[in-house]
Specification:
Strand content: 5-15%
Low-confidence stretches: none
Mean pLDDT: 87
Number of strands: 10
Distance between the termini: 27 Å
Number of helices: 9
Largest sheet: 4 strands, antiparallel
Shape: elongated
Helix content: 40-55%
Length: about 240
């Protein structure tokens, strides 16, 4: 049996896609600022600096990063025939002015990051970022990948059958409510709001989203885990 679509978290998809676009802009600015002092960062390194900035790290985390990158680029730790340890060599490095990097990090520092990482977006999703020819961009199909992450289907033939049956009940109630001023919706109590943003109803397997009854994703997932309806109780 073909999988049955249970739920598409449109808000989460929009937030994640907007966050990815914001991250590309912010990370590009940080990349350019670092490149301006003679260092070529990776996306992972930029992400590490951003993570420190989001925590508003009390110590200077940029200077040691630049110093280490400059040391990495050195062909040897010798000066006039004298060989130094890496630590000694780094202590002699004159780190370039990092003010441009700090300015580029400002949009992702502390509370400022809320405008970059929207709502519940998990973060930059660096697996969806690409760096080529000094340009950071989204990998091909990034938006489709995000959409797939927050689009939920049944995972077995049994749950597909269960979801199809529950959907028939939803359709019948919603049709009835459409001609009777939402009678069932008003009379049937809803329980806690679940992690997907809709409310579990008192009717087993049904939830309420935007004023309509829908198949409960949480109910279906528990059914898939147990293989029966034995998990259900009034505490569900």
């Amino acid at each position: 049996m073909n999988p049955v679509l249970l739920y598409t978290d449109t808000q989460r998809i929009n937030d994640e896609q907007a966050t990815l676009a914001n991250v590309i802009t912010a990370y590009q600015a940080i990349y350019d600022a670092i490149k301006a002092v003679g260092v070529t960062p990776t996306i992972a390194e930029i992400n590490s600096l951003v993570s420190s900035a989001r925590r508003q790290a009390p110590t200077d985390f940029v200077t040691p990063y630049i110093a280490n990158k400059l040391a990495d680029a050195a062909t040897s730790f010798s000066v006039n025939g004298v060989t130094f340890t890496r630590a000694a060599f780094m202590s002699m490095i004159a780190v370039p002015d990092i003010s441009g990097i700090m300015t580029a990090l400002q949009p992702v520092t502390g509370n400022n990051a809320q405008r970059i990482f929207i709502r519940d977006a998990k973060g930059p999703r660096i697996d969806l970022l690409s760096l080529a020819n000094d340009v950071i961009s989204a990998v091909a199909g990034a938006n489709d990948t995000i959409t797939a992450l927050f689009t939920y289907y049944t995972a077995s033939d049994a749950s597909a059958t269960m979801a199809t049956q529950l959907q028939a009940i939803c359709d019948a109630i919603n049709t009835f409510d459409g001609t009777n001023n939402g009678f069932v919706l008003q009379k049937m109590p809803t329980a806690r709001r679940n992690q997907n943003g809709y409310y579990e109803s008192a009717f087993p397997g049904l939830a309420v989203l935007d004023g309509s009854f829908v198949v409960s994703l949480e109910f279906i997932r528990k059914y898939e885990q147990t293989g029966s309806l034995g998990f259900y109780s009034a505490a569900f």
